[in-house]
Write a structure and sequence with these properties.
One of its GO terms (molecular function) is single-stranded DNA binding. This is RADX protein. InterPro entries: NA-bd_OB-fold, RADX. The protein has two domains: 131 residues, OB fold (Dihydrolipoamide Acetyltransferase, E2P); 154 residues, OB fold (Dihydrolipoamide Acetyltransferase, E2P) (Beta Barrel), CATH 2.40.50.140. Helices cover 12% and strands 32% of the residues. Strands 1, 2, 3, 4, 5, 6, 7 and 8 form an eight-stranded mixed beta sheet that branches. The longest helix has 10 residues.
Length: 306
């Protein structure tokens, strides 16, 4: 009875010192961010964003510092949370925005919820799915799965989710985060097929905050990638092939991680599983490739351009 909604919170937050509990479902989850600097002495300079929703709409939640190693892995997409003793701040304007699966959902973008170790010490509780009541009106997690045959019609930077059977996975490579910086992004290329086209999905998979999954991408696994972005460059002649790259909110799952995930109910995922049952595993294994150098996107035709 004391629970408030995100909509009420946005209207009344300026006039309150203490905020009532919130019941929300996690719809999106960002990668873990490390913001430590040598000159600043902080024990655990970590931060992660979550997009959470209730019956009134969707809002950002920021998990700070030592709460990240404690809670980040438990707060999965689909998890229902009871939040108490949190803080409210005006939103950080430069944060990346995931594309919601439900385009009708209202977004509250003026404020965000801060979960801290102190000032005030936030209390987080995870509600098991079997205890979630229909009268709480918590939205279900929705996805934007596409098939390979639909990819060629999508514009640059379009957000989508994909599922496919891995036929190629490259070695892990590094690229500098900034031109002269010391930090690197780790990524690998993969191909996945879904039976709707002769062409595979070409996937540029950056290591998100799921190192265990990133290491286990191998041929013949069922790969699910959420919140991917379409990359197409029509300025090249001939135009380079379209590929998908991970975003800040991407989640990656391979065989062994699918059980209980919300996307297992999606119609396109079910259709893909039906297709895999018609395939001969030995035939697909013959076409599978692992490792090696994968020059993509293609280098320019002449050396001076390169």
């Amino acid at each position: 009875s004391r629970v408030t909604s995100l909509g009420q919170l946005e209207m009344t937050w300026r006039s309150r010192l203490h905020f009532p509990p919130l019941l929300v479902r996690v719809l999106h989850k960002s990668r873990l961010r490390y913001y430590g600097k040598p000159e600043k002495k902080m024990d655990m300079p970590y931060q992660a964003y979550f997009e959470v929703a209730d019956g009134s709409g969707m809002m950002s939640v920021v998990l700070w510092n030592s709460l990240c190693p404690e809670w980040y892995n438990s707060m999965k997409v689909g998890t229902v949370l009871l939040l108490e003793q949190y803080a409210i701040k005006t939103s950080y304007p430069f944060k990346t925005q995931p594309t919601p699966g439900d385009s009708q959902m209202k977004r509250f973008t003026t404020i965000e919820i801060s979960l801290n170790v102190r000032d005030p010490p936030t209390k987080i509780s995870i509600i098991p799915e079997e205890m979630v009541k229909p009268e709480w009106r918590l939205p279900e997690v929705k996805y934007r799965f596409i098939t390979r045959s639909e990819l060629d019609d999508l514009p640059n930077n379009h957000s989508c989710d994909v599922i496919g059977l891995v036929t190629f996975v490259g070695r892990a490579e590094r690229t500098r985060k900034r031109e002269h910086g010391e930090d690197f992004w780790l990524y690998r290329w993969a191909h996945a097929i879904d039976g709707t086209s002769d062409q595979p999905f070409i996937l540029e998979l950056f290591a998100t905050s799921q190192p265990d999954v990133f290491e286990r991408i191998h041929p013949m696994t069922y790969l699910v990638c959420t919140q991917m972005r379409v990359v197409r460059d029509h300025t090249e002649n001939p135009p380079s092939r379209t590929y998908l790259t991970t975003s800040n909110e991407s989640q990656i799952f391979v065989s062994g991680w699918h059980k209980g995930q919300p996307y297992t109910k999606d119609t396109k995922v079910k259709s893909f599983i039906r297709w895999t049952k018609t395939q001969n595993e030995a035939d697909q294994m013959k076409k599978a490739v692992i490792g090696g150098y994968y020059p993509f996107p293609r280098p320019p035709n002449n050396f001076s351009k390169y």
